[in-house]
């Protein structure tokens, strides 16, 4: 019993003193968060080792905030792991740069090729697309359609089966026309597709790309390392793009892709639209990995937007509690900032409420919710434990002139967002180690 008590006392003291045990405990929390974010077990182990090596508790001078130092060590180490120490192959203005995209089927190559083209075209590059996917039916049509939307010239064939031939023709054509950025989309392939891997090698041999980009699906977990390695062994991958980071995926597989290809991440894909491509920012990515992205991104965006925010709300979110009044304040800020406000997509769960492309409908729905909440009592707004039974809902519906169905709709949204917030509240790393303050 004595041991137990002293253990508990030590834990209490943890708030100010960090000893070996507290360090381990903290590393356990962080490791768990990273494993949940799909970071490879071996990488998590490596991180623990190097943080332990770097943080020498004995040597830390008295008076230094040790906890902060450990947090910083974890944060820096993760940023470090995202940095393979090589730069992406540079694109040279005024020269014909050929960039080839490779990766598994469905990972977002074609979508990303066109976004990448669109991004550079807007920056003044003379850009064109070549569809060297002759394998999947409809591949050329898909590229053609979105390239047309992006107003990027393209080349491909509906009938030619020889991908190498199409690639050569397209690249030659655009080189002749003095294009500066010629992007070659290839077909998706799996490790076991020997023939397609050979075709990929031949393509690279033929068009001699200045840069090969490996496209990975951000929702993929432990399988990424092997896949990325398989590509790296056959062609000279120089950089990585991680797609589908607009959803709930934390993208931990990206660390594996960096480690397997020894190449840096250059962009992330955050949606299906043309402009949903963002230059990679390691620090916010690490925050996302640790489960902090939502909140700290949210805080920053709110600060940037200069919107006055109920100061209690962030604290309550960290505690894992959301009241209807918090939601009310949140809805009002969202309307004030405009439907496209970045804040929208950073507040946990908000992006689903006003989805991109459906801003008008989403905004109307939020306005409806606000009018319903105007008919609620203080008790209903402030006490998350209130039960909304039928008679309550009918009263609110009458008071606001809305259907009971709409009241139910609001309450089910509230329930959904509450769940998200309580998940954030359960994230110990967020509670104990406030990485966002580093
Ligand atoms: P490919 O087989 O590698 O060429 O993959 P595609 O470009 O055809 O993309 C496969 C699917 O993923 C399509 O439905 C795309 O719209 C979708 N997709 C690609 N990138 C993203 C992204 O960043 N976010 C989301 N949500 N979907 C994406
Ligand atoms: Mg494709």
From TrEMBL:
GO terms for cellular component: cytosol; endoplasmic reticulum; signal recognition particle, endoplasmic reticulum targeting. It is found in: Cytoplasm; Endoplasmic reticulum. One of its GO terms (molecular function) is endoplasmic reticulum signal peptide binding. Its main location: cytoplasm. It catalyses: GTP + H2O = GDP + phosphate + H(+). Coiled coil: none annotated. This is Signal recognition particle 54 kDa protein. It comes from Galdieria partita.
